[in-house]
């Protein structure tokens, strides 16, 4: 080795060693491969389709917490009576036991008031016989509850969705009954999400397309499939992917999920998705994936994946909600480079430089 090369190499090693000695945040680790945490659910339930980590705090004392793994099983048998393979949410302790996951009560406590939050009770004290069957105006079978499972925020809320949930609408309320005279109604594939409290007690339901215009059916909000994706954000809100809105252009909704009923913001914010202002064309599936963060400063920004936009190359559309208004402001779009690649099918955000 040449003398000059040796000096440069020696200097590089010394510099790296100095950095390691001066830094207190360098903590190397190895992945444990000998003792795996292997959790198993009901056969054929798609157990593990979605997974999230959840921390349950028993009090304000530091370290007084219980860690759980939340697992979605979209084809599981729910505890709600009168439903078949409507999907289920499981909580699993961090243990070496493979069969210690228990189902969390989700369906069966919801009413037409949309918000059932009373702030009382633990799900362990809600007995199965108290659960109500699905109403005559809804279809829970194969609704895929657990397709999206998220947790987070200041209050450690749990967010679980069923994007195939169907509401049956009275055909007399439509400009033209799609199913003909005497039919049971128009089936609205709008989706539903549930907010659970930190202790797994039921909070309230979120239906961002409920009550919106369905006169032109799929050209409006009849088949939203809200909850196909979701994210719980640090500001106490949830971002909901809704790829079926407006002839499958798709859109994103943002709703508050923290705070009491009286103090919580009830307004539903959304990305532009009408024919004039949508950043993507029909059949783009915007909202197939979502994420959010403070990308541009102290205010929240949102990203949504549209894997069939950009003439099939896929696209990620970024919005800002700096002024808390509808619709969001479209900031920039990132386009895929390969046709049919599914660019934007999944998204994740990370704070790389640690600025919050």
Give descriptors for this structure.
signal, 2 domains, Integrin_alpha, four-stranded antiparallel β-sheet, cell adhesion, receptor, Methylamine Dehydrogenase, Chain H, Integrin alpha-2 domain-containing protein, globular, 19 strands, 356 residues, mainly beta
Description:
By secondary structure, the protein is mainly β. The chain has 2 domains: 38-106, no CATH class; 147-355, Integrin alpha, N-terminal (Methylamine Dehydrogenase, Chain H, 7 Propeller). It has 2 helices and 19 strands. The protein has helices at residues 3-22, 245-248, and strands at 50-57, 65-73, 88-93, 102-104, 138-139, 145-152, 157-162, 166-169, 186-188, 192-196, 202-206, 229-232, 237-242, 251-256, 269-270, 289-293, 301-306, 315-320, 329-335. The strands form 5 sheets. It has a 4-stranded antiparallel β-sheet with strand order 1-2-3-4, with no helix packed on it. It is globular, with a radius of gyration of 23 Å. The model is unreliable at 1-24, 112-129 and 171-183 (pLDDT under 50). GO terms for molecular function: integrin binding. InterPro entries: Int_alpha_beta-p, Integrin_alpha, Integrin_alpha_N. FG-GAP repeats lie at residues 33-101. It is a single-pass type I membrane protein. It comes from Anopheles minimus.
């Amino acid at each position: 080795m040449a003398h000059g090369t040796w000096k440069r190499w020696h200097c590089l090693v010394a510099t790296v060693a100095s950095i390691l000695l001066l830094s207190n945040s360098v903590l190397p680790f190895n992945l444990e491969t000998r003792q795996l945490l292997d959790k198993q659910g009901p056969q054929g339930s798609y157990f593990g389709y979605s997974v999230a980590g959840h921390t349950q705090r028993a009090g304000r004392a530091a370290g007084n917490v219980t860690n759980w793994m939340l697992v979605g099983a979209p084809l599981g048998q729910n505890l709600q009576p009168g439903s078949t393979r409507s999907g289920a949410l499981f909580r699993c302790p961090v243990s070496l036991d493979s069969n210690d996951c228990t189902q969390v009560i989700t369906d069966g406590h919801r009413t037409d008031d949309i918000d059932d939050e009373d702030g009382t009770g633990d799900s362990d004290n809600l007995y199965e016989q108290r659960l109500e069957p699905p109403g005559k105006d809804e279809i829970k079978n194969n609704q895929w509850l657990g397709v999206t499972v998220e947790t987070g925020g200041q209050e450690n809320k749990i967010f679980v969705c069923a994007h195939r949930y169907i509401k049956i609408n009275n055909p007399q309320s439509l400009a033209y009954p799609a199913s003909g005279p005497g039919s049971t109604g128009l089936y609205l594939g709008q989706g539903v999400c549930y907010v659970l409290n930190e202790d797994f007690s039921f909070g309230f339901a979120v239906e961002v397309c409920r009550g919106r215009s369905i006169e032109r059916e799929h050209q409006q909000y009849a088949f939203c499939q809200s909850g196909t994706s979701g994210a719980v954000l640090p500001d106490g809100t949830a971002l909901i992917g809704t790829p079926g809105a407006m002839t499958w252009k798709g859109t994103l909704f943002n709703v508050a999920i923290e705070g009491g009923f009286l103090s919580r913001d009830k307004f539903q914010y959304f990305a532009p998705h009408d024919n004039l202002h949508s950043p993507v064309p029909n059949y783009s599936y915007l909202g197939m994936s979502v994420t959010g963060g403070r990308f541009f400063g102290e205010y929240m920004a949102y990203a949504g994946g549209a894997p069939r936009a950009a003439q099939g190359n896929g696209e990620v559309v970024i919005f800002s909600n700096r002024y808390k208004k509808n619709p969001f402001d479209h900031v920039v779009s990132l386009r895929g480079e390969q046709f049919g690649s599914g660019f934007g099918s999944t998204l994740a955000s990370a704070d790389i430089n640690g600025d919050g």
